[in-house]
Amino acid sequence: MTDNPLKRIIRGILQRARAATDAAPADSTPMVGATKFEQRAPAHANAIDIFSGHWATDLSEFSPAWHGGSVKLGTDPRPRSAAEHLGKANRLDGMTVLELGPLEGAHSYQLEKLGAARILAIESNVEAYLKCLIVKEALGLKRCEFLLGDFALYLQNCSERFDMVFASGVLYHMEDPIAVVRDIARVTDRCFVWTHYLEEKRDQHRVAVPVTRDGMQATYFRAPYLDRARPVFWGGNKPSASWMKREDILAAFRHFGLDQIAVIADEPEAAHGANFCFAASRRGR
Questions:
Q1: pLDDT in tens, 252-282
Q2: Which are the contacts of 66, defined by CB distance < 8 A and separation ≥ 6?
Q3: How far apart are the first and last CA of the chain?
Q4: DSSP string spanning 225-274?
Q5: Between β-strands 216-224 and 118-123, what pairing exists: parallel, antiparallel or unpaired?
Q6: Is the distance from CB of 112 to CB of 142 less than 8 angstroms?
Q7: Which of 32, 99, 203, 275 is deepest in the core (most CB within 10 A)?
């Protein structure tokens, strides 16, 4: 009998949690709240509680019995903005969507509710991936498929085309964001993006690195992650991330053919860093 890959992942998490608990001081909090056997009556809340204290999404938006984090991703306007600018009649009916970095599946839920025929969501954070599976069961998602892995590698080798790529909160976590933009443009004619961008007066700790990718010249502003060991780390899967200037991000999409760009919102003074969202599409599509 073959071992189920999901069981191996969960078993590994539980083993790491037990090891951390054994090695930690008596008042330390275990990595996850899972035990080998659940004694309560069956409920989706039991699975949600496995990752108690580790959620970003405010799950009470879906059910008052579900205890998650504080970020209201279940009602976040970004999926609706994607549908308004890149869908038809403010919907995604019949469209195939590649979602990069779904985190905990709340945007995936919205994309399905907006009518997408298929959502392929790729997540490299193991804990976030498992939370996506919990959310998929808890919300009864039928057209979402979650894959565990590096979406940059998937894009490099992808032969499938998608009606839209949804890239919310991921580009600024990339070590090589221009390469990701290039590969997004290979698999779609439409892309929704929300990302931070460099604001030089506020981001002086970053190191400027000139780069050239497929004829596109720009400057990356790199900084290492200093908090990857935190249980609520939701950054990239590499040791550092490269931010770009706003104009260079837009230039990259134009360079690789997604040259019809509508900036939807721009917050240069946002507390956690300048950010904007935009819809990019290929001319005539």
A1: 999 999 999 999 999 999 998 999 999 999 9
A2: 44, 45, 48, 59, 60, 138
A3: 49
A4: -S-TTSTT--S-SSSEEEE-BHHHHHHHHHHTT--EEEEEEEETT-TT--
A5: unpaired
A6: yes
A7: 99
Whether the pLDDT of residue 145 is over 70: the answer is: yes
Task: Tell me the C-alpha distance between 91 and 79, whole Å.
Answer: 10
All structural domains of the chain: 5-61 (no CATH), 74-281 (3.40.50.150)
Report strand pairing: 275-281 vs 190-196. Answer: antiparallel
Give the closest residue to 101 by CA, choosing from 48, 165, 6: 165
Contacts of 1 (CB under 8 A, 6+ apart): none
> Residue 201 corresponds to which tokens in the numbers above?
């007066």
pLDDT digit string, tens, across residues 165-197: 999 999 999 999 999 999 999 999 999 999 999
Q: pLDDT, tens digit, for every residue of 220-264?
A: 999 998 877 777 788 888 999 999 999 999 999 999 999 999 999
